[in-house]
Structures are given as C-alpha cells and as structure tokens.
Protein 1
Amino acid sequence: MASSRDWFESVAEARRRARRRLPRPVFMALEAGAEAGVTRADNVAAFGEIRFAPPRLADLPSVRDLRTSVLGTDIALPVIASPVGAQAIHPLGEVAVAMGTRDAGTAMGLSEFASRPAADVTAVNPRVFFQVHWSARRDVLLARAEAARAAGATALIVTLDWSFPGGRDWGSPAIPERLDLAALARLAPAGLARPGYLLSWLRHGRLPDLTVPNMALPGQPAPGFFAAYRDWMTVAPPTWADIAWLRERWDGPFLVKGVMRPDDARRAVDAGATAVSVSNHGGNNLDGTPASIRALPAVAAAVGDRAEVLLDGGVRRGADVVKAVALGARAVMIGRPCLWGLAAGGPSGVRNVFDVLRAGIDSALFALGRPSVRDLVPADVILPPDFARGLTEPG
C-alpha cells in the first residue's frame, strides 16, 4: 500500500514530510551531526554493508513474535524511543511521543532536557526511562532522578556519549535563548514559509518553549535550555566511581548509554549497570568514530549475559532492527526517525514510524525462517571483512 495523506510507508517518507513541515532552522537542528557528519553518515551506511543469510523455508507460525523486554519492561517490539532533549517541534512535545509509543506498545526515554514535565509524560505512557547526563553535582543529579521516579519513571539512563564538538560544516542553526519580540522578528521569514507549523502552535494557544522543567531546582522556575546547557559545560565528566555512586542510590534498572568499547562495557557492568547502549549520540559525538553498529558485536561479546545490550544510531528500517538483534542487541533506540514522525503527524506519526519498523521486522523474520526476534543469532547475518574497523579486541 502506497503512502497516503495520513499514513506513510517508510521512515524516509516521514523525513520528507518533516522537512516540508518544519521551518528550515528547526529541521536542520534535527539533522545536524558533528563537524563534517562522517560518523552520522556511517551510522546509516554501515547497516547497508551487513547482508542477511539466504532466506530459508521453515514451518513458521502465522504471526511472528516480536515481543521482548528491556530494563524490566515488556514491549511489543524491540524498538524504543531514544531520549532526545527539547522536542518542541510539536506543541505536545514529549507527550505526543508518549502517546505514539503507548499506542505502539513500547517504551520511551525521557531526557532531563525534555520540554515537558516527567509527570505529564508518564501519565500518558507509564513505560518511561528517565535520562540524565553528568550535568550537575552528584546531589542535584540524584534529586532529578528521584523526582522522575516519583513521577513514574521506571528506569534510569546515564548518558556518556557526548564530547561537545564545536561546529558543523553546514552551519549550526541559530536557536534563540527565548522567543521574545526580537527573536520572533528574526525567525519570522522561516516561520512564515511553513504556515502549517505556526498554525499548529497557535491552535494550542502558545509558541515553542525552550524551558526544561525536569531540571528545575525545588522552589525555582524551570531554566531555559541554553542556561541549563551552559551549567552542564562547567561540570567535569564523570568517572566510573561517579557512575557506581549513582548506581548504588538508584534501586532499579540502570542503563549506561554511550558505550562503544568492550573495555568500557565491562567497566559499566562492574559499576552496576544492568544494561548498556552502544551509541555515539547519533553522530553528535567525536566525528570520525565508527558507526555504533560496528561496535555492537564486540560490546555484546564483552558483556555476555551480565547485562542487556541496546543499540542507538542509524536505524531506518525494520531490517536494521533485525540485524542489530542478530548481532547481540536486546532492542534498538530511535531518535531522529521518532522526531521525523512527530513532525510529520504528531502522535499518529510517531505510531506510524513504529508500525513501519514493525512490518519490516516481521518481513525479515519471515524470510529468515525465525518465529521470534528472540531466535535471531549472528549466523542470520553476514559481515564483510573488517566491518568492525578495529573495534574488536586482540585475541
């Protein structure tokens, strides 16, 4: 069935619709990768280097089983929404993502830099994993995590994978600190070129808001995104002792996100992580590092059955999900595809993206003769020589 006005048949079509709907600076903020975008491009291209084993004839059930569990939560397919800050590309922001992931039967990550309070999000979808960066003092981070737990978050994500690259070759869009009259005048041409985007906000009775309520200190107003970001830049990166300290105080599933090396994967598990995510922050970390899928096999081997392994970066099709699961991931996390769906169609657009991936997963399972995603093994895929680009360990 071809795409229609209210439904799209591919993640690529969701991206095209997002590009047509969003003002150019907003769309470019979603698209941008660090510096030349080498890693961002490799995240996607690396999946194309992986081949499937030839299809096999098998006695399969009429319905393949896509269900799995991540961080103690049962989900209908091995895909969850990655935590992404400031999802003010739609008036409902993270609440719309919660609606779409709820309807898809899956979970979502919620960033501390989110534009909506954790309680608003968990009220819609209780399967929420709260994410912190090492962006404040230990006691402040713990307080944020506990506030999210009180709001209903069931797991904690600690993100390590961002080394703050300074520029992008195609230019970084100018995003204002606040939407005052001067900012509105400067952004007016881009906004007027996308009247549907403006009308959607006006129908909700407000303009985009870049405050981050989940980072507010008790009794104080929510800071702006950039004020919170500047505070983060003054905080030293965490040590493994810091990670272990936070883990000791969080009684529940604990994911360390941004692990690309087998030795770091082992350190994360030794620090108490119940899961690790192989991620390079969607190509927004150190540019020129390999795609996350290239690091997955070695990380999965290093972790073994001591913790769950997830993958984040470059997933565009259900077949990509199947490749990642075959190579050792319990599930994948999607960032840009989820936001493209959000921009293209709000909550139903988010659900649409997950439905596209669901159909692709089922089709690949059928061809591989696998009744369940839990039956996938490395032999279901074929890796080219030096696919890992040096990310394997000697011996």
Note: The mean pLDDT is 91.
Protein 2
Amino acid sequence: MTEQCDIGLIGLAVMGQNLILNMADHGFQVAAYNRTTGKVDEFLAGPAQGKSIFGCFSPEELVKHLKRPRRIMMMVKAGEPVGQTINQFAPLLEAGDIMIDGGNSYYTDTEQRIGELQSQGILYLGTGISGGEEGARHGPSIMPGGTPEAWNDVKPIFQAIAAKVGPNNDIPCCEWVGPGGAGHYVKMVHNGIEYGDMQLICEAYSLLKDGLGLSNEELYDIFTQWNKGELDSYLIEITRDIFSVVDPETNNGLVDMVLDKAGQKGTGKWTSQLALDLGVPTTLITEAVFARCLSALKDARLRASQVLGGPADAIESFRDSVDRDTFIEWVRQALYASKISSYAQGFAQLRAASGEYDWGLKYGELAMLWRGGCIIRAAFLERIKDAFDKEPQLENLMLDAYFQKAIESSQTGWRSAVSTAVRIGIPIPAISAALAYYDGYRCKRLPHNLLQAQRDYFGAHTYERIDKEGVFHSDWLGLRREPE
C-alpha cells in the first residue's frame, strides 16, 4: 500500500485518535504515526481495527503512503514538540506538500513556521480545533489559517469531519479564517471567551449556592430551565449535568467533593496579554484568568479565611429578606448580560487584531464556526452572526439593536446581582468586570481628564484640550493654589 492515504496524522493521544476515527468514518484513508510506536500498535489493535487506517512506524513510512500533495497533520503538544516534528518531516517532503498544526500553538510561532517552510515550497496551516475529545470524534469546530494555497487541498476533509449546523444540519463549522497566524489567534480568543464563560457560570453558581443556599437538586432544576432559553449552550448543559452526579464514595454531590483550585493551559493568559498589546480592554477574560490564579492560592486562602472578616451576618440576613425567585431571575439576567459583554470584548479584540495584521477576518462566519462542535457553542451565536451580517464592520457587538435591547432588559437584574454580591461579600469579579466595561463603554465622559492632568503634572506627558486642537503642557506647579 503506497500513495493511497488521503492524509497522515501524527500524535495518537486521545484527540489525535478521535480525529483519525472521525476521518475514517467519513471515507478517508488515514495514515497514523506516533513517536512512541507502541501506541500505533495499540491503536490498530483497538479503536482503529477494521477501519481505513494504516499504521506507520517511521516518518519515512508515513510520507511514502500519502497521496500527493501530501497532507500531514500534527496533533502534538504546542511549542518545541511541533518544531521537532517539523524538523523530522520537512526534509522528506516536496514543494506543494502541506503540514498542518492542529494544536494550540502561539500565533507568532505559526507565522514563523510559515516563513521557514516557504523556502522549501511546503505549505503550512495553523488550525485551531475545539470540542475536546467528543468533538474530535463526532464533529469539532475547525479554524484553519496559514498559507491560503493549502486550503482547497484540505477543505474536503476538514469540512466533512466538522460539526454541522443550520436548518438542514449541513453547514460545516469549518471555514477559512485568514492568512498567517489567524487560525491560531482566533482559536486563542475562542479559548479566552471560554475562560470568561466558565467563570461567569461559576459566579452565578456561587450567588445561588453560597448566597441563596440552594441545593444541587435545586441548581439542577434552575440550569435545566436556563438551558431552554437565552442561555441555551453547551456549558450551561454540562453544568446542569454536573449537579446531578452523586459521589459513590461519600454519597454527596460529586461537585462538592472537587477541590476549588482551578488549572489553566495558557491560552486565556495569551488573550489578555495580546489584548493589552493592542490596547483592547478585554477585561472580563483577564478577570477570569486572575480568578483561576487566585483559586490556585488555596493554602493562602485558608489562612486568610481565619483572620480576614467580611460583612457580619450579611448572608443570613439576605436569605431571610430576599424573594427567592426574584433573585434567581436577577442572577440569570446578570449572567446573560455579562455573556454579551464578554463576547463583545472578544470580537472587539479580533477586530483590532484583524486590522493590525491585515487578516480580513469575517466575524459572522467566525460566530458560525463556534455554533457547533466547540466548547462555547451556544444558541445566541446565531444572533451574533445576524449582527455582523447586517453590519460586517460593527464596532462593538453591544451596539447591535438586538443586543442593545437584551442588555437593556437585563440591567435591573444585572445591577441588583452585583450590588447584592458586594453587600453580602460574595466575589464575582467577572460579572462585575462585565458591568464596569458596559458602563465605561457607554460613558460619554470618563474621569481620565484628571489622569492626563496628573501625568502632565508629574511627568510633562502633555494633554489634548476639549476646546481647541493641539497638544499642550501646563506648569501645574506654578499655577496651583497653595494650601493655607
């Protein structure tokens, strides 16, 4: 069997295996390779048995069994492992062959690799893939970017295996994103929004459980109802499911037995760092990253809890006085409005990056890429697509008529939930940041005239005026009034 496989895939961890099985289910011949070749044997004897999958035990063997132009997809850890894999395989390839990085690589690494391989005539794609193990197996969201000439050669495979949406379930959640590192940048922002979504849900959970004192059974019922309305999404759905699981060892809710110490892999942090580079206030995602960092300080928090006080008896007083159903609705409104604010920030960052790097991103299409298969899939992404279809260069998602109205109708609950959390001492950094972003964005005049005056006073940094053009500096010390 030579030159018969449609694509080769390197890396047989769960994601790689599931993508291969997905490709085979859709009629593609796949060559599979792993650096530890024992995994190839295990895969062939297990899930791949009887399928159109060919196991390879060396780079040379994999290359030999691929149709031209050869398509090789890497599902290996980002960073140095990707570089090592490229160095191993690139010398075996010819001009016109294609290498694909399907991991969470940093977008500038992808751009550097495109340039390095270009001299050999090798085409390179940096492709974001979302959906976890289940998505990889049954239909992920795929965000391809890189060398445009490579897209048509991988499009039939990627769009076949991607999740499908639309009235007839025939629109693939996979479309060309843009050149250079666009695919990996879009996936990074997707992950940043995911950080924000998860943190928002956790804060809503804390308000209901710690504030209102609801049981997991009650939370299950609430999230079941929420998933039937505006908040319909994968993350709300799995949160509902989590509340139903009982720990077989203790007979308690399993979620209550999980240590409150969150991990992260870095893409949320990258989103925040790059937002700062662009001057884009992606505040909610940044607060979500910091919230995970704070959760990791478990031992320090345990010590602090013994000495740092909050509002005394506030939660008990709140529970005695609040109308339960009214507060639940406030939390729902706060969660929905904050979610809109989060996506508005994410798309604002994509808009800024697209302008900075000349990627030509199509924001409505990006919303549809995330409509199915991925972790942040949600019904309201259809509304985001509609907003950008009406105004492709929409400056901010909150300016769309639908989202304006949605936020307006949620403001009472949003503000009430935030003020209640502050009053009774429950931390909700992401929901608070979402509201602060909204209030700041809609504010005609912010207090930063004073900030500029301070900067000019101590550092002669200059300022602009509201009444005439130009840049000015004043002798604040000489003009000041001496205190009596």
Note: The longest strand covers residues 123-130.
Protein 3
Amino acid sequence: MREAFARISKRAFCILGLLVFATILSFMIPKQVFASVDELGITEEDDGPSTVISEPGSAETPEDLKEINVGNNLLVTYQDGEGNLSGTLRILIILTLIGLAPILLIMLTSFTRIIIVLHFLRTALGTQTAPPNQVMIGLTLILTFFIMSPIISEINENAVIPFEAGEMTQEEFFETAMEPLREFMYGQTQTKDVRLFLDIAKIDEVDSLEGIPNKVLIPSFVISELRTAFIIGFLLYIPFIIIDMVVASTLMSMGMMMLPPTTISMPFKILLFVLADGWNLVIGNLVKTFY
C-alpha cells in the first residue's frame, strides 16, 4: 500500500513539474503585438499594422501640425490657449499642495513656535500626558489660525479673488499670495539667520525684503522660530525648577532618600500654575510675541 502511494505521489509531482515548466516556456516565447487598425487611415504593411496616421510632411494647416502623427498616443495639454495651465494640471497641482499643506502649515506659520513652547510647558510641569497630544495640536492649530487670520484675509482679497475673476495670471497670483507671508516671516526672522543663509547661498547682501529669495527667507524663519521657542521654554522652566530644588532639599533633610522628589513636587507645580493663571499668562504672552 505504501509503495503504491509512493508511486502515485511521484507521478503527481512529475506532472506538476511539467506544467510549471510549460508555463515558464510560454512566457519566454517572444510574441509580436501590433496596434489595431482604426478609421483614421492607418495602413497595414508587410510586417504588421502601422501606427502612423498620415505620411510625414503632409500637414497643410497649423492645426495639422498640433496633432501628433501617431495613432496610439497619450496627449497632455498644459496650456489653455491663454498662457495659463489647463484644468487637468490645475487639479494635479491642487492635490499636490493638499499633500504638502501640513509642511507649509508648520514651516510658514506660527505653528512651530507654539507647539514647541507647549511641549516645554508640559515637560516642566511634569505631567506626562496632560494635556494629551491631540489637545495640544488642536490648541496650536486654533492659535495659528487666530494669528494668521489677517494674513489669510489679505491673501484672499489681493490674490485669490482677482485670480478667480481672471484679473491676473498665475505668476502674478503666486507672487501676490507670497507677499503677506514673506512680510510675516521677515518680521519674525533675525538678521543673523538671514545673513547665514545668504552666505551659504553665495548671494550678495540685499537692501530690502524684495531682494531676499524664498529659498533664503524660509529656512531663516524656521531657525529663528526654533531659537525663540527654546528661549521661551527655558524661561518657563525656571519657576518649576526652583520648586523641584526646594522639594528635593526638604526630602533629603527629612531623610526620605527613597521617595522620588518629582512625585511630591508635581502637585505643588500644578498648584502654582493654577494660582498664577498660567494658561492665560503663557498663551497670552505667546500670542503677543507675533505682534
């Protein structure tokens, strides 16, 4: 019985191997694929159908020259006849900007400074997850829109509405839309950061905001925002560090060496923060740094 089963198994494996080998051979055999003949005048040659619609040099009008002389082609129109992008490419650019929107929101607005200061505040208080990340990001977004609302309104009035009305070209739209953002970033950027990136880019000194390119102004603004956020975070740490030092020295004087000082100091830090109306002070002064 075992020998019969073994013989059947060997035959089954041999048949399976032959099927796999035949399948591999079928993919390895070269095949010729020709385009189908359509009603545009494609003629058949001896070696297969041709994909040329008309003979080269047979164009008589400018409209004939605009047509690609290939039957199976992919045509992408990038102009609408007036020097503007076509609707298809506009949709593609809009979808790309939507994908880049988080980066633009973080890099070109007040988002960076606010979120870093709030993280420093939470760490100084010693509360690991209070407030949670979702609340901090939501609060940062609300404050960002509050701070940037005048700039958004200016962009809408001076760039978006005239562009939709057809009163300006796309290049003028981008330049006009960037002007309020450039003024905002320039007001928050330190001069030494601008000079740093001007030297790296090997650009001579400029006399006005208009002479600073975006590739220099944007990284200078980000570096300045990081520096300002860390300075504010350091100032926030000072009163809470004093509480930690007082609690730690008190516990050591009482001989409680095994009790973590942070466990005792955290309620006192929260009490100090509440009594001083910390959220009002921190958020209010943080927003005022942009004005």
Note: The chain has ten helices and two strands.
